[in-house]
Amino acid sequence: MSVDVAHIRPARAKDAPALSAAYEEAWRNAYQGIIPHLSLERMIARRGPRWWESTLRKRAPLLVLDFGGDAAGYVTFGRCRLGRAPFQGEIFELYLHPTYQGLGLGAKLFEGARIRLAEMRLKGLLVWALADNEAACGFYLSLGGKPTAEGAESFGDTSLRKIAFAWR
Predict the structure, then answer these.
(1) What domain range is 29 assigned to?
(2) Looking at residues 67-74, what average pLDDT do you find?
(3) Element at 62 (helix H, strand E)
(4) Sheet strands (E) in 87-134
(5) Which helix (H) or strand (E) holds 115?
(6) Where is the N-acetyltransferase domain (predicted)?
(7) 74 bridge partner residues
């Protein structure tokens, strides 16, 4: 008999506190030293439990990594914001609490989103990552993503380069 300690499921209202904590820790871990400190702190402060409660009530496409009953990370996805073929689907955010990183669980979240995008009949997938976030870029490359476009994201007076990874 096997026990699945980690699985992907739709988010529930009671996940708000855990998602808030996962977001905060994941963002600090991923972006400290990349995004200017004040901008990073403001972004984290805006995404507290109330924000998550509101988002979960809206029923946006959001899957969580359930690890032993707790939401340890999440992925948001939908129609590609670029609106051009062949990339109809997009993963907007994929974050894991740092405790759960490096165990293959991010790939499990990624695959869960790909399945849902396919169910939505959205072909091709795009994900953006800050170029200086070497862990994220390496993660998407390891999943077979191909760098396909570049852009910039502004944080206060700082502009950071971002890379789009694509899957057909």
Answers:
(1) 6-127
(2) 92
(3) strand 62-67
(4) 89-96, 125-130
(5) helix 105-119
(6) 6-168
(7) 64, 95
CA-CA distance, 44 to 146, in Å (whole number)?
29
The verdict on residue 159 lying in a domain is no
User: Tens of pLDDT along 78-127?
Assistant: 999 987 668 999 999 999 999 999 999 999 999 999 999 999 999 999 99
Residues in the chain: 168
Per-residue burial over 71-101, b = 16 or more CB atoms within 10 Å of its CB, e = otherwise: bbbbbbbbebeeeeeebbbbbbbbbbbeebb
For 30, the enclosing helix (H) or strand (E) is helix 16-31
CA–CA gap between residue 103 and residue 35 (Å, rounded): 26
For position 5, what pLDDT does the model report? 80
What CATH number is associated with residue 119?
Answer: 3.40.630.30
Helix (H, G, I), strand (E, B), or coil: what is residue 133? Answer: coil
Q: Reduced to 3 states, what is the DSSP secondary structure of residue 109?
A: helix
If one counts every other C-beta atom within 10 angstroms of the C-beta of residue 50, the result is 11
Q: In what order do the strands lie in the sheet with 146-155?
A: 6-10, 62-67, 70-79, 89-96, 125-130, 158-167, 146-155
DSSP 105: H
The number of folded domains in the chain is 1
